[in-house]
Each structure stands twice: as C-alpha cells, then as structure tokens.
Amino acid sequence: MQLITGDKFLRPQMMAAxxxxxxxxxxxxxxxxxxxxxxxxxQNLNDVSISVTAATAQDISDMRIETPLDIAxxxxxxxxxxxxxxLNPAITLRGVGLNDFNVNNNxxxxxxxxxxxxxxxxxxxxxxxxxxxxxxxxxxxGTLYGRNTNGGAxxxxxxxxxxxxxxxxxxxxxxxxxxxxxxxxxxxLSDAISGRLSLRLDDRDGQHSxxxxxxxxxxxxxxxxRGQLAYDNGGEFTANLSVSIGDQTGTTxxxxxxxxxxxxxxxxxxxxxxxxxxxxxxxxxxxxxNPYAHDTDTATVALSKTLDVESSALVLTANxxxxxxxxxxxxxxxxxxRVWGEVSVDxxxxxxxxxxxxxxxxxxxxSQELRLSGGDDSFSWMLGAFYSNDEVETDNYIELTExxxxxxxxxxxxxxxxxxxYLQETESMAVYGNTEFALNDKLTLVAGxxxxxxxxxxxxxxxxxxxxxxxxxxxxxxxxxxxxxxxTPFTSQDDEISEDRxxxxxxxxxxxxxxxxxxxxxxxxxxxxxxxxxxxFDSSELAPFGIEEVTxxxxxxxxxxxxxxxxxxxxxxxxxxxxxQTVIATDAGTFPLTNAEEATINGAELDLSWAPTESLDMRxxxxxxxxxxxxxxxxxxxxxxxxxxxxxxxxxxxxASEKLQVELQTDFKYTDEAFREAYNDPILKTDSxxxxxxxxxxxxxxxxxxxxxxxxxxTDEVYYPQGFDLQALNGTYxxxxxxxxxxxVNMHYSF
Length: 751
Prior knowledge:
By secondary structure, the chain is mainly beta. The protein has one domain: TonB-dependent receptor, beta-barrel domain (Maltoporin, Chain A, Beta Barrel). It is 6% helix and 55% strand. It contains 7 helices and 44 strands. It is globular and about 65 Å long.
C-alpha cells in the first residue's frame, strides 16, 4: 500500500484498505453509470476514448467542490493555483498550463460553463453552485473545443430545469465565521415551459490575521443567482435560457517574502526576511510562529488588497430534431468588472513600496456556436462553426508622490504618479468536423479536423502624471479622448496580429470485449499569440509573443470488471510542446510573457473505482510525469508540474437504525515537489504535501435530509502552492500559503 514513503497520509490510507478487506466478503455493488458530454454528445464515461475524470453532483457535494480551485481534488496531474494573491486561477494539466497572472492572456486549459468558453483567467474566480457534473478532459482538445485547450478542457455543467417540481436548500457554518446558503427550486410552469432558480450566498473571514486589530485578509462576501427557462414542444425543438449574475467583495491574501530586500524598500533586514518574519513587499511583518499571523511593519502600513467583482452571463441553447440529424445553437453574452487595489486595514489610502494601487479590469465576451450531427452506431459525424469576440480593458493607477525613495529629487520622479492601461479585442472564427467510423464490430476510426482563424488588436500605453487622480479611464488618457493634463507616454503601442491554424485528432478504438476499450490517438492543439498586459518601461516588451503548440500521442484502456463493481482506466502519453508561453522576468523588474523553445512531457495515469459492497465504494488514482524544458534561458523542469500526484476517496455507509443512515468519507490529494517558475529557482520549489479531507454525515434512508460535519486539510498542513520571483523588482521572492484547516457543519434538505 505504500506509495509515498514516509508521508503521513499512509496511516489513513491503510485504515481505508483495512475496512475494504474486512468487508470484501459481502456482495459487491454496481458502480454508478456516469453520462458525460465530453465529445459534445451524451455518452457513458467508459465509452469515451479519451482520458476523462468526471464528478457527479453527489461527488461535488460530498467533496465540497465549490470553486474551480477545488476541481484539482478530482484527479492526478491536475494543478490549479490562484495567482496574484488569490485573484486569477491558473490550471495546469499534465504539465501544460499558463504561468501568468494578467487578465488578457488566455489559459492553456479551456474552462467551459454550460458549453461556453471563459476567455480570461479572471472569469474563473466564481462560486460553483447547483452543478450537475464536472468533467476534466486531459490532452489537447483541438477538434471539438479548439484553441486554448493544449492541456485539455474542463466542463462545468449546471443542473437544468425539469418538469418535476424539485429543489433543495443547504445551510452551512464553520470556523473563520463562515456562513453559506445554497438553494434551488424548479419545475413545470406550463405545458411546454419549465423553470429553475438557483442561488448561493457565501460569507467568511480571511485566514490571515492582523495582530494589531480585528481585521483579516482573504475574506469573501459573495452572492450568485442563476435563473433558467426551458422549452420543450415534445422533442422536436428544445431550448434553455440561462441568466446569471454574481457579486463578490473582500480582500486578497498576503504573501510571504524570502530573500534580501532591496535597500529602497522598508526596514526589514535580510535575516528577518529569510526567517519569514518580514514581508515589506505587501506591508506585513511576521512576529508570530503562526505563518498566517502578521503585524505592521515599522516603515509601512499593514495593507489589504480590496476586491469588488461583478459578473453577468446569458446563455441560450437551442436544439432541433431534424429527423436523423440534430442541430444545436449556443449563444452567449457575458461580462465581468473587477476593481481592486491596496488600502490600509482601516480602509484609508495607504503607502506601499509602490504607492496606493488602483486597478479596474473589464472583460466582455460574445460567442456563437452551431453544430449539426447525425449517424448511427456504425458511423457518426458532427460539423460545427464557432465565432467569438471578446474585449479586455484595464486601467491602472499607482500613487508615487509619497514614496520617499521614488520622490527623492535625485531619483528624478518627484511629484509624479504612474498610470498605464490597455485595450485588447480578440475575434476568433472556426469550422470543424469530427467522425467515428466502425471498421468492423471491434475497431472504430476516429478522425477530426478544425480550422481556426483569429485576430487580436492591442493598444497599450503608460505615462507619468503630474497630479493625483482617481481611477483613470484608458480611453481618455491613452487613446485620443479628453485628457486634462500633459500626456508623455514612456511606452505606447497600437498593434494587431492575425493567425490561423489547423488542429485535429486521429485515433483508433478497439473494443476488446463487452467491458474493455483500448484506444490510441494522436492529437494537436494550439494557443494563439498575444501581448504583455502589464506596465513596462521597455517598449521591446510590448512586442507580441507567438503561438504555442502541442502534439500529443496517447494510448489507454478502460476496463469494467467484477460484474460492474470495478472500473480500471489507464493511459500513457507523450507530448511535443513547442513555443511555450511562460513568464520570463527581466532585469527591470517586469514579468512579460515570452515564448520558451520546447519541452517534452511523458507520463502515465492509472485510476481505479471499486464498490466491493453496497456499503463501501472508493476511487484511487495516480499520475506520473517526466518532463524536460529545453531552453538555455530557463531550468530543465516545467513549472507547476509535479513528478507524481495521487488522489483518492473512500466512502462507507451503514444503517445505524431503521430510520438513520451514517456515512463516513475521507479523500486526499498528494502532490510531489514542484518548481513554480520556469527558472527552476530552488527557493520557489514547493515541498511535497498531502491534503486530507473528511466528512461524517447522518441522513434518513431516502437522504431527503442530510446533516454533515466536514473538515478540509485535516492535518492542518502548511504548504505553499504558489510563488513569484521578484528579485529584479525588490530583491525578494514571494510565496503564498495554501488554505489551513477549516471545519464546518451543513444541513441539506431536498424535495
């Protein structure tokens, strides 16, 4: 049983194994059939010839998968971290991902909510609620999903209205003054129309404390509402209209500095920083052995990055049954507006090593997809067309007037503030086709091809301003509208790139027996080039970076055994990864996104689902990676790519009485050590860690009501899943702590 020598997660693992062996003599149970839409049509998970991990609504509830960050619990070779002090989630699958924090850059792993692609990492910071299923698709998905899926795709599918009146309400509370309400109700509104209304309210204090007062950092207050209307005229035509809005306020999390702080910043000594006692970069000093406790620094004020996010989305999905063919249309419009900045804990402007920071980020997106499909068991096909247009605008302002090191006349910048911003518009069009052709009763040929054409326009400028201003308008300041003052940009750009690419897949499926599928494939994916979305004093950094491409070879199997009580899936893969878009820091202290040369990634995955009895079920998985980054400027290992990850969940149920059922659950994820930057600096190499979660629930036999006690990070593991190299900027490295132990209780009632 020992997978990870010496790691403390082994004791609970062996306990779970002992339970399984004790009960293995009991009658086995059938595993639940899981239907997925990974290939744009409903299929049994075990019939899909790609590596897919799926979580049902029950899994999502039991494992408390509430944000995109939590999806990492589901499978190995999945790394999801929140960059930039908790603002922008970044996803890495099998070593392929985006190691950048700017909102204008597209991810390497596409996230789809009800089949709509989310264009920016900033749009991933939402609460997940009333979710039917989550699917993690590994490997390039260049045919059916297109660009920005080099590493794979994640599908989040919400619960749809039905004609049956149903719903639920869940109330929860926990430490850090957390409170949550989630509810949904739906049913028939007329002979042809059904509706569903869902909401989630979440309020919690942050885990980082300030020893000089009662303020915390990392607190969240969020509200999300989704309303749906579904129309069905008897199967010939169906449609679903979904409208959702969300609002979130709070603060971001502080970081911990390591290294020798530059003399221009604060009063922390190098020894203090190395001892994790001082973090002048964000205005905190550690004075306690508790890594989550901070004090004010003598030279600065304790700070908090305030956060205010508003989002909205409309999705209209329509399906026509054309007699042997089906036509699907998906139309979406979405917006996100996020304002954040640094203020003191009493919410007055504060001085940082960089002055008061204000940022306003606006993202809007429209998309349209059309699909026509048909066929039968021997030959199926799908044709599609896709169009999207998205715009990103950021306005940034830093007050420098009271920063002594910068205001010094010898420095030459006294009395000036810094402003920069950009406008980016991306237009993407694609056509694609996919087919599955049965060569005989055992062999099926899978072939797909997609043509994508994309153009991106980018306008960027930065300037020093001789006045104190409020949050500024990029249109007014930089791009020709009214400007009350003298504009002297130190950098400016007005540029456009256009790119087109073919991507696709060729595979062969072999149905060895009724319950055994063996498959092999070669697939390609790409992510278009773009522009650096942050300030710089060097105009050369504004030049566009190029396309990123992946060619993947994969072979795998899916086997159902033991009368449907045991499922074993495995895969091996090889990636040829070129033009890797990664952050490469400059001597000027900026972090532009640049193309690295190439990398080779080899790996293997094995997962097992087993229900040895009606009372016991488990899922265990392991993923291995061997990766080599080939670029003389960088290290040899891919960032955010652990050599090994393992996941597992064990659930045991029994009847305590005729009217009371008890369920015990534990789940874990082990992550091997990994570099967090492409330079492979050992200071930013995170140690291996295991996160254990647990749950005890009691319910009535039908589970219409469930009372549960849960705990995340049972062992209170201290770990750093994120880090940045800030040596050129202020002489330090910055690391961010993962979440500490949280406990709570939930009451769930469904009807």
